[in-house]
Write a structure and sequence with these properties.
The complex is a heterodimer of chains A (314) and B (327). By secondary structure, chain A is mainly α. Chain A contains 14 helices and two strands. Chain A has one domain: Alpha/alpha barrel (Glycosyltransferase). Chain B is an all-alpha fold and 327 residues long. The chains are: A mainly alpha (314), B mainly alpha (327). Chain B: Its cofactor is Mg(2+).
């Protein structure tokens, strides 16, 4: 089997130089905090977080902070949104630097986005999606501030998005999708509410996502994509059904998506690499206990030692 | 550079604006090299955004910024503030966002902007919204954003009249379209015009069985069929059409995983196998001498272990639930 080109991936992340005019350089600008989370978490999983200057990163993260609202924008000068607030909190967790935050202010921002029906909006404009339920619950839990919201209602909304196949969608009635399933299972795991899931039914749907090429897709009749290695595997682990898929074939699929020379992982073999799929590939291997990669927590999407530090120290 | 000529730096109304460059901070984790035309637009955008200027020129500038990067949510935020301040014609804005959406159909910000507009415009635009999502779904029938929007419009603004017909049409085009099956379930369970799941069950079972017989390897209708009897396993077992469709499929292809798996669920839930079913499964038993004495469910499960090697562990687990039930 091909091996993980860990050194090349580290080099790719640390020195990634976007070419001018590249599509990625344009579309990444406003989600740079997500990019930082993907890159830095991957570095930590590969035991190379020290390759970056922690103080510089923390300074930059805090320059994306909005002291008035308590939320973070995707980049300096951008409006706050929960998508970037979670990434900011996660990166600060990696560096063990939650101390720089006004924790209650950040938690109040997130808690303030809960709606009457228990759902969460992503920002003041009110887009509702189970992604935001997960993000809100994950952020608040990492900050030890879950008590600031109505947990029962938050759980009820997620459960209302459950479908006939045992999976979950973005809204009540929305089609089951592996990414949304991760969010909903993660939200239920964080709130200790996994009993709402029919584990055998959902587990079967999730393991049906494995395609003949060994990779996982996100919905029936779609192509396999490395990112679903994370969404599907983490969900299967949380419901204790990960042994139902063929891990060896999946690992092979991920490893075949590497650029072994210049580093980085792509969505499927022979495609262009990017930081997003590099993260999901390495994270997927971590969930399968690949040698040399730190174990990852399937609910918080952070290395296990980081999560332990947060919850065991308290 | 050609782009630069038409960039905001050359607009007469921008003459008094001082552009504000992006501050990426020292040696960024994800360094980004910006294209010049992109940089120019965003530098001007930043200037007006920081000044909070809600004017026609700011509106024009947001359109330009959206064109270089429709994913920039801060630009969309600012645009909404300007629209409100100028009391802008929202139908015209709808035309603008639809043009952008047609080129970027998988962008969260665009769809959210559309929803914001539709919510303000109200039920009168429901059918127009449905026409638009139909257009997008004609290009990609599984676009998650378009489906979410369509479901939101249905449930918030209405327009259910021809939705089941639309599902029929999409499934006629591609019977494997899981999104259309999901929408069908939404319609039969939530449409205020159809009377709900109980009223629709009988005809839906019929429709689904036809779909299965046409393409037994299609995962979606097998799951849909179970969904029609969700939480009422006893009725699923009692409906002879269900075991019958398994039987029909297995007669042609005794290794069809979906048929075997549904049959297995039926047997575990207490289905008494007919003589015809036993006869159909005889080759399965004969293919494997060690199964000769096993009960029917166990034999089916052993077959699934062989037919579906990728999920052999799932079927092995399933088998343990059978033996524990017997003991």
């Amino acid at each position: 089997m091909a091996e993980l080109a860990a050194d090349q991936h580290v080099r790719y992340i640390v020195t990634v130089e976007k070419k001018k005019d590249s599509f990625e350089s344009l579309v990444m600008e406003h989600i740079r905090l997500n990019g930082a989370y993907w890159g830095l978490t991957t570095l930590d999983l590969l035991h190379k977080l020290h390759a970056v200057d922690a103080a510089e990163v923390v300074d930059w993260i805090m320059s994306c902070y909005h002291p008035e609202s308590g939320g973070f924008g995707g980049n300096v000068g951008h409006d706050p949104h929960v998508l970037y607030t979670l990434s900011a909190v996660q990166v600060l967790c990696l560096f063990d630097r939650l101390d720089v935050l006004d924790i209650d202010k950040v938690a109040d921002y997130v808690a303030g986005l809960q709606n009457e029906d228990g759902s969460f909006s992503g920002d003041i404009w009110g887009e509702v999606d189970t992604r935001f339920s997960y993000i809100a619950l994950c952020t608040l839990s990492l900050l030890h501030r879950l008590h600031k919201i109505n947990m029962q209602k938050a759980v009820d909304f997620v459960v209302s998005c459950k479908n006939l196949d045992g999976g979950f969608g973005a809204m009540p009635g929305g089609e089951s999708h592996a990414g949304q399933i991760f969010c909903c299972v993660g939200a239920l795991a964080i709130t200790g509410s996994l009993h709402h899931i029919d584990r055998d039914l959902l587990g079967w749907w999730l393991c049906e996502r494995q395609c003949k090429d060994g990779g996982l897709n996100g919905r029936p009749e779609k192509l396999a994509d490395v990112c679903y290695s994370w969404w599907v595997l983490s969900s299967l682990i949380m419901i204790d059904r990960v042994h139902w898929i063929d891990k060896e074939k999946l690992a092979k699929f991920i490893l075949n998506c590497q650029d072994k020379e210049n580093g980085g992982i792509s969505d499927r073999p022979d495609n262009a690499v990017d930081i997003y799929h590099t993260y999901f590939g390495v994270a997927g291997l971590s969930l399968m206990e690949y040698p040399g990669v730190k174990p990852m927590d399937p609910a918080y999407a952070l290395p296990l030692d980081v999560v332990n530090r947060i919850f065991l120290r308290k | 550079m050609e782009h630069a000529k038409s960039g905001p730096g050359s607009w007469p109304e921008m003459a008094d604006v001082v552009p504000v460059p992006q501050d990426d901070g020292p040696s960024p984790v994800v360094p980004i090299a910006y294209r010049d035309d992109f940089r120019e637009v965003m530098d001007y955008f930043r200037a007006l955004y920081l000044a909070g200027e809600r004017s026609p020129r700011a509106l024009r500038l947001t359109a330009e910024a959206i064109e270089v990067n429709p994913g920039n949510y801060t630009v969309w935020h600012f645009r909404r503030l300007i629209l409100e301040a100028l009391d802008y014609d929202l139908l015209q804005e709808m035309n603008f966002v639809e043009k952008i959406a047609e080129c970027n159909p998988k962008n969260y910000q665009i769809w959210h902007h559309k929803r914001w507009l539709a919510e303000k415009l109200g039920p009168d635009v429901a059918n127009k919204e449905h026409e638009f999502t139909m257009k997008i779904l004609a290009l990609d029938a599984k676009n998650y954003h378009a489906w979410s929007h369509r479901q939101w419009v249905l449930q918030t603004l209405g327009g259910w009249e021809s939705e089941l017909q639309y599902c029929n049409q999409l499934l006629e085009e591609d019977i494997f379209n899981n999104s259309a099956w999901n929408q069908r379930y939404l319609v039969i369970t939530r449409s205020p015009l159809l009377g709900g799941l109980m009223a629709m069950r009988d005809s839906e079972v019929h429709y689904t069985i036809e779909a299965i017989l046409a393409n037994p390897q299609n995962e979606s209708p097998w799951r849909y069929l179970r969904g029609l009897y969700k939480g009422e396993n006893n009725l699923l077992v009692a409906d002879e059409r269900i075991s019958d469709v398994c039987l029909k499929v297995l007669k042609n292809d005794w290794s069809c995983v979906f048929a075997l798996s549904l049959l297995l669920d039926l047997l575990r839930s207490g289905l008494q196998p007919s003589d015809e079913l036993k006869a159909t499964l005889e080759p399965i038993r004969n293919s494997n001498p060690e199964m000769a004495d096993a009960d029917l469910a166990t034999a089916v499960c052993c077959t699934l272990q062989k037919c579906d090697p990728l999920r052999v562990n799932y079927w092995s687990w399933y088998k343990t639930t059978l033996s524990s039930q017997i003991s």
